[in-house]
Amino acid sequence: MLESSNQSAEETILISKASYYAYGVVMFFILTVGFLGNVMTLLVLFQHEHRKKAMTPYMVNIALADIFIILFGYPVAMRANLRGKILESSHCSWGGFVNGAVGISSIFTLTEMSFVSYHGLRQVNRSSRLSPFQVVCSVAVAWLYGVLCMLPPFLGWNRFVVSASRISCCPDWSGKSISDAAYNLLLVFFGFVAPLTAMTVCYYKIYSLVHRAVVPGNLPQIQLRRRQSELKVAKVTAMNVIAFLLSWAPYCCVSLAAVFTKQFVLVDWEAEIPELLAKASVIYGPIIYSTMHSRFQATLFRILHCRRRVILAPQFITDATRNNCSARMAADRTQGTSHIDQRFLQLPLQAMKRRVAVSYGGTAICKRESSVFVSG
């Protein structure tokens, strides 16, 4: 009997050590990739071609929020965990507040981005965009919203406690009193359900607007292109929203289960999984921007001085494009640097529309006048 008890205790210690090692490895990956990715995001967004975009302030806000929580939120609990110490009350209060406030501010910012995407598709005129003052106010409201949602525990309504996984802190989801349950339900509603509902409505309207398939015949070409650009940005924003919500949904579901059952439904290392998924939300934005946003990708490659393949959009390939590219290629050949395959330019126009032009380095292939501006 004694041997069985000792074996059980030994297995518990091994599991605990294994879970802490796994936690340390995953958190190191999240902190490293999240910090580097969001710093690169800021470097790209501060380039001149991105500064005046309607979505840039919100993307910058999310990147700054991610960097803040990476530097001042996650390390507090991580340092105590890796030293084998129990999280103190002050650590819990800070960690729970920062994680919650930044997370809710980010999801509120994504909600505002959804609204801006819908507004941009409806109003193709540049004059209809939000003013700088309105943008600053909307970003400030996002932060104020997050802070207000996490402020009640400091005023005696609920409290921050060590989570079921014992690696971080959170509101007392399993609190027995009615007031604790009321705060928890309101927190889930205003921090997750309400923004999710608003974003769903916005993207449903975007879907309806796009699939209405009615584009005014007298719409100027420049406004039509702006509409297409807004649609691409809306797709990137939607993917960012989906990734963020999927990372936080498991944590919200587990928390709601604890509210109704008055106890944690997952314990020890099992409870780490939804928490780590939520923490990993800081790495999704840079990955999505760099893989789905062509202009972001082009700027990133230029900053990193990487070689890249560039596809000339078929709708922009005309005789003017051919002439412009030919002239540029001839000039480049005299300097010993050819940026485009000569065989491509000798193809018929219809064939050109189906082929790929390849550019190396950081120089533009064609000029603005030909409606094509591709840079490496």
UniProtKB/TrEMBL annotation:
InterPro entries on file: GPCR_opsins, GPCR_Rhodpsn, GPCR_Rhodpsn_7TM
UniProt-recorded Gene Ontology molecular function terms: G protein-coupled receptor activity
GO CC terms in record: membrane
Compartments where located: Membrane
Residue ranges constituting the G-protein coupled receptors family 1 profile domain according to the UniProt record: 37-289
Protein keywords: G-protein coupled receptor, Membrane, Receptor, Transducer, Transmembrane, Transmembrane helix
Protein name listed in UniProt: Melanopsin-B
Organism this protein belongs to: Acropora cervicornis (Staghorn coral)
